[in-house]
């Protein structure tokens, strides 16, 4: 299993980014979470097979219609065995 921590910057809040990502993630079979950050970015952790994670990362680099992703920082994280993909409160 592969898990990554991602911070996405740009116009990514108020455009349905988190809820669309939850749909994409669940459809891809990955687990983890996503939340808005107080600095205007979106933060997420995504866990699954390498192919599943790469598929979700490709979507995250584009985002939903109405968003404008200017940067996505990806770092490896330790797998946690989450059972679903959830939207968390702003952190």
Structural summary, described in words:
The protein has 91 residues and is an alpha+beta fold. It has one domain: Alpha-Beta Plaits (2-Layer Sandwich), CATH 3.30.70.100. It has helices spanning 17-28, 50-62, and strands at 2-11, 31-36, 42-48, 68-77, 85-87. A 5-stranded mixed β-sheet has the order 4-1-3-2-5, covered by helices on one side. The radius of gyration is 12 Å and the shape is globular.
Profile the largest sheet.
Answer: 5 strands, mixed
Tell me, briefly, the overall form: globular
Mean pLDDT: 97
The span between the termini is 26 Å
Q: How many individual domains?
A: 1
The helix count comes to 2
Q: What's the total number of strands?
A: 5
Share in β-strands: 35-45%
| CATH architecture classification name | 2-Layer Sandwich
Query: What is the helix/strand order?
Result: EHEEHEE
Q: Over the alpha carbons, how many angstroms does the gyration radius reach?
A: 12 Å
Q: Strand pairing plus helix content: what structural class? A: alpha+beta
CATH class group? Alpha Beta
State the CATH topology. Alpha-Beta Plaits
- Numbering strands along the chain, what is their spatial order in the largest sheet? 4-1-3-2-5
């Amino acid at each position: 299993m592969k898990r990554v921590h991602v911070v996405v910057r740009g116009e990514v809040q108020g455009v349905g980014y988190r809820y669309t990502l939850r749909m994409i993630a669940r459809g891809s079979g990955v687990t983890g979470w996503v939340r808005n950050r107080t600095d205007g970015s979106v933060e997420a952790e995504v866990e699954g097979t390498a192919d599943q994670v790469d598929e979700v990362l490709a979507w995250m680099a584009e985002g939903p219609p109405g968003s404008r992703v200017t940067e996505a920082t990806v770092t490896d994280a330790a797998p946690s065995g989450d059972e679903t993909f959830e939207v968390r409160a702003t952190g």
